[in-house]
Amino acid sequence: KNVYNRNQELAEENRRRFQQAGAYVVNMISSPGSGKTSLIERLAPRCVAAGRRLFVIEGDVETERDADRLRRLGVEAVQIQTHGACHLDAAAVARALAGAELAGVDLLIIENVGNLICPTGFDLGEQLRIVVASTAEGDDKPLKYPAAYHKADVCILNKMDLLAWVDFDVERFEAAARRANAQLQLFRTSCRTGEGIDAWCDWLMQRRA
Amino acid sequence: KNVYNRNQELAEENRRRFQQAGAYVVNMISSPGSGKTSLIERLAPRCVAAGRRLFVIEGDVETERDADRLRRLGVEAVQIQTHGACHLDAAAVARALAGAELAGVDLLIIENVGNLICPTGFDLGEQLRIVVASTAEGDDKPLKYPAAYHKADVCILNKMDLLAWVDFDVERFEAAARRANAQLQLFRTSCRTGEGIDAWCDWLMQRRA
Ligand SMILES: Nc1nc2c(ncn2[C@@H]2O[C@H](COP(=O)(O)OP(=O)(O)OP(=O)(O)O)[C@@H](O)[C@H]2O)c(=O)[nH]1
Ligand SMILES: Nc1nc2c(ncn2[C@@H]2O[C@H](COP(=O)(O)OP(=O)(O)OP(=O)(O)O)[C@@H](O)[C@H]2O)c(=O)[nH]1
Ligand SMILES: [Mg+2]
Ligand SMILES: [Mg+2]
Ligand SMILES: [Zn+2]
Ligand SMILES: [Zn+2]
C-alpha cells in the first residue's frame, strides 16, 4: 500500500508541474506491439501542421529503439529504460524530465512499458489515459484484462487493416470494452492504411491542459 | 529477494511432485494474444492421437475463458484467476493442483498470464519454458524484452500466415532471439493454416519427464 501512496504523492507533484507548463499529458498503455509508437509516429506530423509542440517520454525495459524511431521524425523524445521493471511510475517520469524545459510543450505523451497489467496501477500525473488494443490480439482482452479498460479514458482499436485475416469481432470487442467502462471513448485506427488516424489526432490535439 | 527464494523452494517441491507423477511440465509465456491457447488447442487432438495424456493449467487475471476453450475440446484443464497479479508463481500452481491426480499425466502445460516481463522471474517447477511471439507484434521484441527470450528453452513464432500484412522480418527476429539466447530452439507456426504445428507437437510429445 505504501508504494501506491508514495507514487500518488509524486504523481500529484508531476501533475502540478505539467499544469504550470500548460502541457496536456497522456499515458498510453497496451500489450507489447499493439501499435503505441506507430500511433505516435502518425500523430507527430499532424502536431507540426497544427502548430502543437509534441514531447514524448518513451518507457521500455531495454533499448532506445522507440525514442530513436520518433527522433528520426524530428520529435523531441526522452527514453526511460527500466532494466527490468514492468511499468513506469511517477518517480521515473519525474527523473526523466529533471533537465527538460516543458514550457511551450502543448502535448506530452508518455508511452508506457508494453504490459496490459502492472502499468494500470501507477498514476504518472497524466490527464488522459489511453489503452491501445490490436485486432491481432483477440477480442476477449477487455474481459480478461479489465483494469486496463476500466482505468482508461480512451480505447484505440488499432490494426483495423488486419480484420480480414484474424478472428476478431469489432462489435463484441467494443461491447466488452464498454462493459469494463461505460465512459470509454472508442476510436478505430490503422497505422498502415491511415484509417481513423485523423479523427483520433484531431480529437487529441483539441485537448487543453 | 525473499519472494524469489521462497518461490524457488516451492518450485522445487512442485518439480519433485511432477517427477514422481512422471509428467513433463511446460511453462508457456507470451504477450497477451500471441496465441498460447490457440497452440494448445492445436496440440490437444495430436496428444489424443499419440496416446499422450494432456493436462493444462490456465493462468489469467480474470475469467475462465481459456480453460473453457480447452474443456470444449475434451482437455483436462484447471483455471487460475489471479484477480490482479501479473504472473503465476509456484504457490499458485501448487494450490491449483491440490486436489488433482497427476499420475498418468504425460504432458502438463501451464499457460502463464499474458505478460512478457513478470512471469519470466518465477520458476513454477517446469522442465521446459516456451516463449511465444507473434508476427503481428513487431520483430524487435527479443531486443526490447530480452529476459523472456534469455530464460526460455523454446521460442515459437506464431501467426506466420499474417506475414504479408505486417512489417516483420523473420530472419531479423530470429537473429535477435538467438542473440538473447544462443541455445534457443526455434519453431515457426500458424494456428490458422496449420503451418509448423506438426513439427512443434511431434517435438514436444517426444519429451520425457
Ligand atoms: N498491419 C498493421 N501493423 C501495424 C499497425 N500499427 C502498428 N503495426 C505494426 O505492429 C508492430 C508493433 O508496432 P509498435 O508501434 O512498435 O508497437 P508498440 O505498442 O509501440 O510496441 P512496444 O513499445 O514494444 O510495446 C510493428 O511491426 C508495426 O509495424 C497497423 O495499424 N496495422
Ligand atoms: N491469423 C492468426 N491468428 C491467430 C493465430 N493464432 C492465434 N490467433 C488469434 O489470435 C488471437 C489470440 O489468440 P489466443 O490463443 O487467445 O492468445 P493467448 O496468447 O492465449 O492470449 P492470452 O491468454 O489472453 O494471453 C485469437 O483471435 C486467435 O484466433 C495464427 O496463427 N494466425
Ligand atoms: Mg513502442
Ligand atoms: Mg490464452
Ligand atoms: Zn509489474
Ligand atoms: Zn508483474
Q: From the alpha-carbon coordinates, what is the Rg of chain A to the nearest angstrom?
A: 16 Å
What is the third-level CATH name, the topology of chain A?
Rossmann fold
Query: Which structural category do the helix and sheet elements of chain A fall into?
Result: alpha/beta
Would you state the CATH class of chain A?
Alpha Beta
Q: Provide the CATH architecture of chain A.
A: 3-Layer(aba) Sandwich
Spatial gap, N to C terminus of chain A: 30 Å
What is the CATH superfamily of chain A? P-loop containing nucleotide triphosphate hydrolases
Biggest sheet character of chain A:
7 strands, parallel
The overall pLDDT average of chain A reads 97
User: What is the chain-wise order of helices and strands of chain A?
Assistant: HEHEHEHEEHHEHEH
Name the chain pair whose interface involves the most residues. Answer: A-B, 34 and 32 residues
State the helicity of chain A in percent bands. Answer: 25-40%
Oligomer class: homodimer
Proportion of residues in β-strands of chain A:
15-25%
What's the overall geometry of chain A? globular
According to DSSP, the number of beta strands of chain A is: 7
Bound molecules: guanosine-5'-triphosphate, magnesium ion, zinc ion
Low-confidence stretches of chain A: none
Please tally the helical runs of chain A, counting DSSP H or I stretches of 4 or more residues.
Answer: 8
Strand order of the largest sheet of chain A: 3-2-4-1-5-6-7
